[in-house]
């Protein structure tokens, strides 16, 4: 997720181009800090996340303290504390008794734990060795300021504390597993297809991130790692009211634009068309310059196609037979990492997904036919 009001970011390179206010010091700290690491003994600890779930945490004991530094997976996973300082200097999150139970620990506990869940998903399902497929260190930054957002910043994921802007109360943004997976997927894209963060390629970038965040949520919840139920809404766990969500993959129009703080007013495109809800068909494509050409808006068209391909349904008179989450994940992963290029648009994406399905399941397979049906259903032909 990326708030246009906070910064301009190129996901192609992962380099911050300019900070427009809100978190500039946090961004600078995350990309320029000399990262603290410790050498010590692996120790299993416990912590409590935002929703009261007790997490098993992999930590490193050194200097009589327990640091959120996981060395058990071959890939190092570390969580940093920005300390909510004006002169942000991230340090490793630590505790003196290996019980991360304080209320302030929740944002770090969830960030650290979910980073491991997301890494495990991509390793187990797709054989990927961290975001860069080279064993890159996975860094999370928490307590970086009272902003309501999370973002991949080139060196790691930044999580805002949440706030009550626009009358909507949000909690720490590491509280939502689908959001953690979303940002990690941006990191994968930045080191593979490098989809340019603008217009249709940027919307495709966002849609792929939404999809894998959602697939990770379903995979994790099915393993009973939490009492919560998986769904096809996005980032619902960051909202304190328990009913708000940022986007919906199965019913895009159910999420009004006003919920996204980046869209405080309806979008009016270059053709004078007014957009008040997220689209579910290519005929509703936003054509304008806001939000880098509607990357967070037009992504919902791809989201709807992805949902139909997984779960099935009839949309605009087109029937789609779902092929399931496992196959959808394999098809999109192959396309996103080996077939898509930086300029891939929606029509190219359809062709790339068909190519991936053919490679995985055969030229005349059900999977190929349902990719075609799903994209026909949203008007991408």
TrEMBL record:
Pfam families on file: Peptidase_M4 (PF01447), Peptidase_M4_C (PF02868)
Molecular-function GO terms, alphabetical: metal ion binding; metalloendopeptidase activity
Record InterPro entries: Peptidase_M4, Peptidase_M4/M1_CTD_sf, Peptidase_M4_C_domain, Peptidase_M4_domain, Zinc_Metalloprotease_M4
Gene Ontology BP, a term: proteolysis
Required co-factors: Zn(2+)
Active site: 183, 296 (proton donor)
Keywords: Calcium, Hydrolase, Metal-binding, Metalloprotease, Protease, Secreted, Signal, Zinc
Domain Peptidase M4 C-terminal, residue spans: 193-380
General function of this protein: Extracellular zinc metalloprotease.
Protein name: Neutral metalloproteinase
Species for this entry: Priestia taiwanensis
């Amino acid at each position: 997720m990326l708030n246009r009001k906070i910064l301009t970011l190129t996901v192609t390179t992962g380099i911050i181009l300019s900070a427009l206010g809100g978190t500039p010091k946090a961004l600078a700290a995350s990309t320029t800090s000399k990262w603290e690491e410790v050498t010590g003994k692996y120790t299993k600890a416990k912590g409590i996340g935002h929703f009261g779930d007790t997490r098993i945490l992999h930590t490193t004991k050194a200097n009589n303290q327990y640091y959120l530094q996981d060395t058990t997976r071959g890939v190092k996973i570390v969580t940093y504390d920005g300390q909510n300082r004006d002169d942000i200097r991230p340090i490793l999150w630590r505790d003196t008794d290996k019980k991360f139970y304080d209320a302030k620990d929740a944002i770090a506990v969830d960030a650290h734990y979910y980073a491991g869940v997301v890494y495990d998903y991509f390793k187990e399902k797709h054989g990927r060795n961290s975001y860069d497929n080279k064993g890159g260190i996975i860094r999370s930054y928490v307590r970086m300021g009272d902003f309501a957002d999370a973002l991949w910043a080139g060196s790691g994921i930044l999580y805002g504390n949440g706030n009550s802007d626009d009358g909507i109360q949000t909690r720490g943004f590491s509280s939502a597993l689908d959001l953690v997976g979303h940002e990690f997927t941006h990191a994968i894209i930045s080191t593979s297809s490098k989809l340019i963060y603008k217009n249709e390629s940027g919307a495709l970038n966002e849609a792929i991130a939404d999809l894998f965040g959602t697939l990770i949520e379903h995979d994790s919840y099915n393993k009973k790692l939490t009492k919560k139920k998986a769904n096809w809404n996005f980032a619902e766990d960051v909202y304190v009211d328990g009913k708000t969500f940022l986007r919906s993959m199965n019913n895009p129009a159910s999420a009004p634009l006003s919920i996204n703080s980046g869209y405080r007013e309806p979008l009016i495109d270059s053709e004078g068309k007014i957009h008040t809800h997220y689209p579910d068909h290519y005929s509703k494509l936003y054509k304008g310059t806001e939000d880098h050409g509607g990357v967070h808006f037009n992504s919902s068209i791809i989201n709807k196609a992805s949902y139909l391909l997984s779960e099935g349904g009839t949309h605009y008179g087109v029937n789609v037979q779902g092929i399931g989450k496992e196959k959808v994940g394999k098809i999109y992963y192959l396309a996103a990492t080996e077939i898509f290029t930086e300029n891939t648009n929606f029509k190219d994406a359809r062709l790339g997904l068909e190519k991936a399905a053919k490679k995985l399941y055969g030229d005349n397979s059900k999977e190929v036919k349902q990719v075609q049906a799903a994209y026909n259903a949203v008007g991408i032909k």
